[in-house]
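Postdoc handover notes: sequence design on the structure in folder B. Input tokens:
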């Protein structure tokens, strides 16, 4: 195999796929990137078996077609370190040589026959969604997934695909995030699937690559199969495995009778939490919120006797009450809500709270977050 390509074009293609290459693996071949050169294009692939990304470029001049599996650990940083200019990659036997100006790298390759066969998505009935919309939905839920490997279903995000809508849900049993959008697609029937979260985090990367190819390319095509979900953006395909269920019946835990509603400026709330959290207990991370009229008092007490207090203005007309939360969970929710105002809905100090972002008009934005409270001393 032998081809020539500009350093910038090669680096862009590698940047799309390299993040998927595992840093540690029991299968050495997975530490490689796969390069496949034909007369028409150069295709680069990487996989960790849970996530696979393939991207193609027509900006390479291919002299000798071929396939090669190159260990990424040296190849990728070497390409990134090169000055702009032409890069020539040539394979001879079990080695490849990369030459750019006076810079040269010679590296052993691995058997290309050992590289896992990457299954192409069935692109018969794809669903189309704006890339920005899908990225927002992933960001609005991914922070709430569980890290508990004994509950693998909770480490993924549930997708609820419906004829004219998409809903993503994530939970770790302490908090829950749901993002819902009405869409113009026409999907037949109903389908629920649980998707690997790390794979979904790659969507922003492939969308950016597609936009770099074509500024007008703002759509992502989605293809569903029995064991995986695939995303196409321009010349790049991301394939993500589905996780085994079942996913919890989250509808059963969403409170229906939270009748105390507090409208809060999100920026003020975040800053106030940040201040009082300085003295919060390191084990519980608890802060206390006190509501009375148009004000919210925030307080935290540490085990060493330190304490802090703050107060912000809110819109609230209910009875006075106090409730405790893990401030870290609360911060995660707030920083992933894309609105200037947030509505906090409560029932009492021991019941789950709901948070929703709202537009200036008061209209809801399709995002709902649930947060379990922490028991206050004396409750």
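Designed sequence:
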């Amino acid at each position: 195999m032998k081809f020539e390509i500009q350093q910038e074009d090669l680096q862009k293609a590698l940047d799309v796929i390299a993040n998927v290459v595992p840093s540690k693996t029991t299968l050495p071949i997975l530490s490689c990137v796969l390069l496949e050169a034909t007369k028409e294009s150069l295709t680069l692939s990487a996989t960790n078996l849970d996530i696979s990304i393939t991207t193609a470029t027509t900006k390479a001049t291919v002299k000798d077609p071929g396939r090669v599996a190159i260990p990424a650990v040296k190849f990728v940083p070497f390409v990134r370190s090169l000055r702009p200019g032409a890069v020539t990659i040539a394979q001879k036997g079990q080695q490849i040589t990369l030459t750019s100006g006076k810079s040269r790298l010679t590296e052993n390759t691995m058997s290309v026959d050992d590289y896992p066969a990457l299954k192409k998505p069935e692109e018969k009935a794809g669903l189309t969604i704006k890339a920005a919309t899908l990225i927002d939905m992933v960001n609005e839920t991914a922070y709430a997934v569980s890290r508990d490997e004994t509950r693998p279903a909770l480490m993924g995000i549930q997708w609820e695909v419906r004829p004219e809508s998409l809903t993503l849900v994530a939970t770790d049993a302490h908090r829950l995030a749901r993002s819902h959008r009405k869409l113009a697609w026409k999907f037949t029937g109903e389908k629920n699937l649980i998707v690997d979260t790390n794979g979904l985090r790659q969507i922003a990367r492939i969308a950016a690559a597609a936009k770099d190819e074509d500024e007008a390319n703002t759509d992502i095509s989605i293809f569903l199969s029995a064991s995986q979900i695939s995303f196409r953006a321009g010349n790049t395909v991301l394939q993500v495995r589905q996780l085994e269920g079942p996913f919890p019946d989250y509808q059963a835990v969403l409170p229906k009778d939270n009748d105390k509603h507090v409208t809060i400026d999100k920026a003020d709330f975040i800053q106030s939490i940040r201040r009082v959290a300085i003295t919060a207990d390191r084990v519980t991370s608890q802060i206390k919120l006190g509501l009375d009229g148009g004000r919210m008092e925030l307080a935290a007490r540490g085990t060493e006797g330190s304490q802090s207090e703050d107060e912000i203005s809110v819109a609230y007309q209910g009875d006075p009450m106090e409730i405790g939360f893990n401030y870290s969970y609360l911060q995660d929710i707030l920083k992933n809500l894309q609105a200037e105002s947030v509505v906090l809905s409560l029932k009492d100090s021991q019941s789950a709270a709901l948070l929703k972002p709202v537009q200036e008009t008061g209209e809801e934005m399709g995002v709902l977050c649930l947060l379990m409270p922490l028991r206050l001393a004396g409750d």
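Context for whoever picks this up: The chain has three domains: 2-114, 127-250, 254-371. Don't rerun without checking with the PI first.
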